[in-house]
Predict the structure.
Amino acid sequence: MPVTDPTLLKIVESRLLDRLVCRKCGARNPPGATKCRRCRSRNLRPKKKRIGIKK
Ligand SMILES: [Zn+2]
């Protein structure tokens, strides 16, 4: 389902930017997490994906 509401889209984008992705199992973790919620690995990396932002 595509997101068409601009306000909602902004929230979705910022949430995607804030996600932490586990390098071990690939699970997405909430921002600020220190351990993976699935495999408890601490090998998390921030998911930095620019959507619609050009610099
Ligand atoms: Zn994991």
Q: What stands out?
A: The beta strands are 20-22, 28-29, 44-46. The chain is about 25% helix and 15% strand. Helices lie at 6-18.
